[in-house]
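Handout, section 3.2

Students often ask what a structure token actually looks like in practice. Rather than define it abstractly, here is a full record for Methylenetetrahydrofolate--tRNA-(uracil-5-)-methyltransferase TrmFO. The first block is the sequence as you would receive it.
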Amino acid sequence: MKKQQVRVIGAGLAGSEAAYQLAKKGYQVELVEMRSVKMTPAHVTENFAELVCSNSFRSNDITNAVGLLKEEMRLLDSIIMKQGDLHQLPAGSALAVDRDGFSESVTNQLKSMDNITFVNQEFVEFDNMPTIVATGPLTSDTFSKYLMNYLGQSELHFYDAIAPIVSVDNINFDIAYRKSRYDKGDGQDYINCPMTKDEFFAFYDAILRSEEAPMREFEDVNVFEGCMPVEVMAKRGMKTMLFGPLKPVGLEKPNGSKPYAVVQLRQDNAAGSLYNLVGFQTRLKWGDQKKVIQLIPGLENVEIVRYGVMHRNTFIKSPLILNRHYQTLKNSNLFFAGQISGVEGYVESAASGLFAALNMIQHLEEKPLIELSSETMMGSMANYVANANPHQFQPMNANFGLIANRLKDREEMAERSITHIKELIDTIS
């Protein structure tokens, strides 16, 4: 017997994960994606789960919050983690992926599932079909305005930026060198461009003198702290950069000397031909970006294959709208997932899509929604989304500060979390 039809709006990380979880349980899934009928300012392909900013899923260490979240997702058969692991690139202790191979594989797996129907159009209005909204940070203007009216909210957005990508071909390895911070991974996963004090001051001054690209829709830019443009960091002072993405700690040069500052480049594709500038999100004008990048030692003649840009991110004021199951208080048939729900980051978005889908299944089968312990990373994120201060609500990355009943030993917290997830699997399988 065919199970009920469920709609998932948006085929990003959260939507792809939600569609997969529903489809593998036998539900008829209508997956709505507006690309290519209507493209966003940041996407460049029509593939599902396209990574528009960094290609890093961050740490794989379970004593790191996002590393623990990834392990929870692996236990719950996450398509995003499965394909991320299959398309892993060298990145020390982090999980970085070949962005094209990753999104193509997610797309192919979803399209191979007979009970997923793909609808290529912009979604504009709810009906009575059970629905998970996972339209992500680049939700269309039309649907954003509809949501504002439907949810009774006055605004639904903030802004963040994308880092440039360069070709490896013209990097000067007489200056640049391969090394992971503290030699993690195989010790050679990043390309490092070291700066002397004078070189850093010249670089810093060039950023301050550069012109930002105008943004058509606003004057006062509300920038998310977790994806801060490099020029915003520079305006806060040079120490913001030296203790942030340009910190030299653990990145000694091959001769053993310590640079004053280091710009790191992370592999962006499987071929190893493209690298992105770590922590170098920017909205500078492209001509100024080129001048600033070519001031980085080792990158004087580098080819920039994609310039950094700023784009709008959309999120709802979730504590007024959602419960801790990602279900709306207004409509039990309506769930939200991904960055629009108030989580921040690739892995966090996919995790919320997974958890929203599991709860949608419980709802459709008239079973109690999942009371996942806040001693898990996934449960603590859902609790934050539902119970944070609504008047100061901002999207949040996974972090141990969200975990209930914190312990000094993070390994013990990780083991406790994994035990909870295994108990959940026993109850829903």
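Discussion prompt for tutorial groups: Residues 346-364 form the longest helix (19 residues). How would you have guessed this from the sequence alone?
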